[in-house]
Hints:
The protein is mainly beta and 70 residues long. The protein contains 1 helix and 6 strands, in the order H-E-E-E-E-E-E. It is globular. It starts with a helix and ends with a strand.
Amino acid sequence: LQASLGLELCFEKGEIRFHNPQLPGFVEEIRITGLALGDASASFRLRRRGRHTEVAVIARRGDIGIKITE
């Protein structure tokens, strides 16, 4: 799942990154709650939109960057 979402935790820059996220064909939506990076964390909802995957930030705690690229 990490590879299909292009999920990377960059501790040096304090960022959670999604690069060209794609859900598997049999999954319409997933939620990731409390993904921690150091003392900070974030929660996400990922939803299929045609051939693309939409990433929504549901919650954020602490000093954390979120980067989404295609």
